Amino acid sequence: MSQNFRAMELNIKAFGYDLAHRLAADLPHRENLxxxxxxxxxxxxxxxxxxxxxxxxxxxxxRCAVLYHRKIWEDAFxxxxxxxxxxxxxxxxxxxxxxxxxxxxxxLARHGVKVxxxxxxxxxxxxxxxxxxxxxAGSLDKVFKPDIIDRETFxxxxxxxxxxxxxxxxxxxxxxxxxxMCALEHLGNLQKGLDFVENALACIRPGGVAVHTTEFNLDDxxxxxxxxxxVLYQKKHMEALARRLAAQGHVVRPFNFDPGNGPxxxxxxxxxxxxxxxxxxxxPALPDVRHLKICKTGHRVTCIGIIITKGGTT
Length: 314
Hints:
CATH architecture: 3-Layer(aba) Sandwich
Number of domains: 1
Number of helices: 10
Strand content: 15-25%
Shape: globular
Low-confidence stretches: 129-137, 276-284
Helix content: 25-40%
Protein name: Methyltransferase type 11 domain-containing protein
Pfam families: Methyltransf_23 (PF13489)
InterPro entries: SAM-dependent_MTases_sf
Structural class: alpha/beta
CATH class: Alpha Beta
């Protein structure tokens, strides 16, 4: 009987992935896209974002197809927020936390930005499981994307250093902006992630911008994962963070907690996220993973993006 339930689960996954592939295939072919101001809010990943011209532009820039995947949304959200803040210009300085192998440092450097890409040191990353999961950039080679930028320009504008996000060194200061992508939920517990968001503001100048994405639990009135390798933030945590930062003179872009109502907004994916064969059962090959929301230990989870402008004069 249990194997029948598993077969039903796999059917749901297969139909969801197939729908995502079909929707992507039906998207219009868009040429000559340009960056545009859309008044981006702090918000959740949605199907309408995936289908927007602004996201398609950033996919074009990072040499990626438009896919119904929340990780694609995170890349585009961060880049759109930085663009709207005027950060993507020659001579600007940016600091990335937990960069892994993301394409953002390469694209920023192509726009003339001086970038410091950081990660936890290899020994501590291995203990936390980041290296095993492929979320760690041990050197500049892993954040260099040759289809985005040439090596000479990249080496001139991008540097790499190891940084513990729970103990940011005091010499990392004066940047125009900073960002992190799905990293602050891996710092041990909910409070440590929120403290990181606040502490990271010390790294940027007044008027500078911080952009972060993280895991978001859509079930705000239920218990969440508060500690461990991956924690899940809820609406109440984001609202408390906004109040905390506002009290210090910072400006958090208003939150839009609308989860969307498209087919891919309503599809909640379940493990495994990659094809694998559990003990005693041979599972069919599934299409490439496509989802905006997942079920993580019983919680409905998506991504949320946060945009902060640093206040003050010093």
